[in-house]
User: Fold these one by one.
Assistant:
Number 1:
Amino acid sequence: MNVAVPRLEAKHLLRRYGGRVVVNDVSLHVNPGQVTCLLGPSGCGKSTTLRMIAGVEMQDSGEIYVDGSLICDTVFRVPPERRNIGLMFQDFALFPHLKVGENVAFGLSGDKAVMARRVSELLERVGLADYGNAYPHELSGGEQQRVALARALAPRPSIMLMDEPFSGLDNRLRDGIRDETLEILREQDTAVLLVTHEPEEAMRMADNIALMRDGRIVQEGAPYNIYNAPADRDAVAFFSDINVIRGKVEGSLVQTPFGQFLAPGVHEGNEVEIVIRPQHVKIDFDRSGRGPDPTIEYGTPARGVVKRARFMGSESLVEFRMDHDGSIFRVTVPNVFLPAEGKVMWLMIRRNKCFLFPIKRTNAA
Ligand SMILES: Nc1ncnc2c1ncn2[C@@H]1O[C@H](COP(=O)(O)OP(=O)(O)OP(=O)(O)O)[C@@H](O)[C@H]1O
Ligand SMILES: [Mg+2]
């Protein structure tokens, strides 16, 4: 059987700066026509990873392959300009002395008429058909960014590396450009490695997300899996606000003010954290000091008092102070409901939406 070779593959990349490891054993792959997203907080090593793949920075160890062929390890190195990799970086720069059309044509060669057609086709697709003869300084920041995008796409790179390429655009423009860019890249069967620190952007664009933290990839998978089967508490927290309940496993169960939770596979006596997103907490009214009856789906209700309620547009965010320990619980509810501060209510947790993680001990003691 012919096993498909990834268009781009990085194996065990490692990079140190002044003795500190900032990219630590990163392996990833991207298939043709697919988008892999490197997602993680500021400083976790995303741009450094991308720069090594682009060839503008050398890894301390690890290898990079394109279509199964080695293009870079610590001794052998194909120079950046011969990698057929398109780049769209955070700090993109257009050539100020070249017109917009000339900027887009920069990486092209060959027949003049063919080049001109390609340039006008791309300018049209990024919504700048009439700007070919303008100079970069005559364009807004967002327009310049779209020119940079057209320039990167022009030579039909087989791999496109994008580092927060849409960060300078306002929301509505951004959605349009983002979708359009993806469409062009998919049409050309380009393999895209996209860096972002925004979970929404990653979910919207990626076929595959590699979640990065402190230089390492902590989880990799389709957006649906990363969101619904997160590897740890921080992976949940990266995508949304979280609520956390702590407890100890006794007889395979954890007793909490919200009822008991199953703790499969966790050792007896271990502490666990039960993590729940604000949209999976249900709230109900107080009936003369009593809450709703327990259910299998939602367990037992626990009582809290509204500390703050904020209208957020499509939904409201309500913060409760819980009676049992004074902790804060965040709940999102449909926007029609905005309870008054001080109101007593009952909270219930959607069992099949919460995540249970053993608490990691930071040292072996
Ligand atoms: N040339 C350099 N010299 C020294 N340290 C560097 C250098 N480049 C990056 N670093 C450090 O390496 C770490 C990773 O940086 P990197 O730019 O890869 O992060 P990032 O994930 O892209 O962050 P952001 O989302 O803020 O762009 C950071 O702590 C940064 O300060
Ligand atoms: Mg960066």
Note: The domain at 240-358 is CATH 2.40.50.140 (OB fold (Dihydrolipoamide Acetyltransferase, E2P)).
Number 2:
Amino acid sequence: MRPTVWKIVQQQSEYMKTLYITYTHGDEHPPYEIPNALVANPLAKERNVRYIETDLNRSFGVMTPISYEEKRAVELDEVLTDYDLVVDIHRTTAQTKFCGIVTKSDDAVYALPYGVSAVVLVENIQNSLISRAKHGIALEYPYTYSLHTGSIPLYRVKEFVTAEPHWIDFEETEQGIPYLVNEKAYHGKCFLLEKIHPNINSNFKE
Ligand SMILES: [Zn+2]
């Protein structure tokens, strides 16, 4: 039996059965009230810590689940399969604009309605939550953000580099565009990006 905290009220959009997930990282408080969201890491939320034993967002699909989060990931896996789209809400302390993260390029289009400034494709993140979903997006809300309208570029992570304090937002550098500088999930590194679509908005509408 599922604990009460798991009670998921299904949210039907017109064509996709959608699940909202909060507190994949227990100290990342959503920017607004999200009704019927599933709390991914209830114990970490209660203690207001990122995780208890291992980063939940790297705890999926391990051969022998041992940590609290690895076991929780097995339970969540079962839930995710019931949905067409999983929206994983994060609150980053990194210096960045509001962005979506996807692990499959086809999923970028699902981030559009949320007002993201860009979508970042990270293909090689193993064991993350959204990679387990049929379709999945992570939304990275910084503490200060505004909603974006207009063209939305799709970037791919070229490499991770050590973060430099002068890299803020989308400031262009010679090597590319840094992103999510000092986001905790990347251990003091940041994404170095290459643009693979100038505007997924128009690209995907056709
Ligand atoms: Zn997070």
Note: Confidence is low (pLDDT under 50) at residues 1-12.
